[in-house]
Structure formats: C-alpha cells, structure tokens
Amino acid sequence: KSVSDEKKQMVASVEKQLEEARELLEQMELEVREIPPQSRGMYSSRMRSYKQEMGKLEADFKRSRIAYSDEVRNELLGDDGNSSENQRAHLLDNTERLERSSRRLEAGYQIAVETEQIGQEMLENLSHDREKIQRARERV
Fold first, then answer.
1. 15 in Cβ contact with 92 (< 8 Å)
2. pTM score > 0.85 for this model?
3. How far is CA 112 from the centre of its chain?
4. Which family would the database say this protein is a member of (predicted)?
C-alpha cells in the first residue's frame, strides 16, 4: 500500500506541476502580446516551441497514467480489459480537451476584460482632453 500511496502522491505532484507550467505559459503568452512588434516574432516562436514541448510532456504523462491505472486495475481484477482501456483513454482525451477549451475560454475572457479596461481608460483620457480643449477655447 505504501508503494501505491507513493505513486498516487507522485501523480498528484506531477499534475500540479503541469498545471503550474500551463498557467506560466499562459502568462508568458499574455506578456508576449504586449511586447513591441519588432521583437515579438522571436518570443512568439519560443512560445510555440514551449507549447509543443508542454504538449509532449502532457501526452507522455497521460500515457504513463493510463498504463499505471490499467496495471493497478489488472492486478485487482486479473483481466486484460482492452475495451475498457480504450474507453478510459478516450475519456481522458475528452477530459483533457475540455480542460484545454476551458483554459482558452478563461484566457479569452481575461483578454476581453483587459480590453474593456483599456477602452474605459481611453474614454476617460479623451474626456479629460476634451475638457482641456474646451477650457482652452473659452480662454481664447
């Protein structure tokens, strides 16, 4: 049981680290968007390679997790259960797709909120500028 508990802790630790890495990549991507256009290309290509590497790591981890869970199930049940293995892999794929879509939606929402804030600031600046121009006209 201690080996099983140890493996569960390792899996949880890796999942947590992968989630942190995903969040860091999202933050880095937002930062890259704010970089001046002339140097943005280099950073964008780095981000693509980081994302590809992250995808590979997640796929490797998923395969390892499936293999481990199948190994444990086979030990408990004593059968091969290929169809349930395929179903489990399919469910994990779908779950992962949903998680990625959720992260994309959250990132899109965050960008929309930031855009709205910037627009509001611009409107306030324009309003102040208008007031200044009107005061200057009145003085003239």
1. no
2. no
3. 16
4. Belongs to the VTI1 family.
